Amino acid sequence: MPALQLRIVGRVQGVGYRFALQREAARLGLTGWVRNRADGSVEALAQGPQAALDALTAWARRGPPSARVAGVTATPADDPPHDSFAIRPSA
């Protein structure tokens, strides 16, 4: 199953970004996880159909209304399958 590792930078912590990304990923039928990083970025791993991964990446470039996304890096990932889309503790 295709998977992407996303790194989102900008004003993306303290604005509900993780929760909004989790909702969007679930709406798209994706599994994986999202978490805050100590450097102020948000990191996510998403698995599912390529079209849904592309849609999530496009959404990540906008984010929720209060976020100000400066950039998104998406790289292919190799991760074991996940059952749902979870919010993980900060790293």
Task: Give the topology.
Layout: E1 3-11, H1 17-27, E2 31-36, E3 42-47, H2 50-62, E4 68-76, E5 85-87
Parallel strand pairs: 2-5
Antiparallel strand pairs: 1-3, 1-4, 2-3
Structure report:
Strands 4-1-3-2-5 form a five-stranded mixed beta sheet, covered by helices on one side. Helix content is 26%, strand content 36%. The chain is globular. The protein has helices at 17-27, 50-62; strands at 3-11, 31-36, 42-47, 68-76, 85-87. The protein has a single domain, classed as Alpha-Beta Plaits. It has 91 residues and is α+β, with helices and mostly antiparallel strands. The mean pLDDT is 96. It has two helices and five strands, in the order βαββαββ.
Strand order of the largest sheet: 4-1-3-2-5
Structural class from helices and strands? alpha+beta
Number of strands: 5
CA-atom Rg in angstroms: 12 Å
Number of helices in the DSSP assignment:
2
Tell me which CATH architecture applies here: 2-Layer Sandwich
Gross morphology is globular
Reading the helices and strands in chain order gives: EHEEHEE
Question: Low-confidence parts, pLDDT < 50 over ≥5 residues?
Answer: none
Intertermini distance: 25 Å
Relevant terms:
alpha+beta; 91 residues; Alpha-Beta Plaits; 36% strand; 2 helices
Quick summary:
It contains two helices and five strands, in the order βαββαββ. With 91 residues, it is an alpha+beta fold.
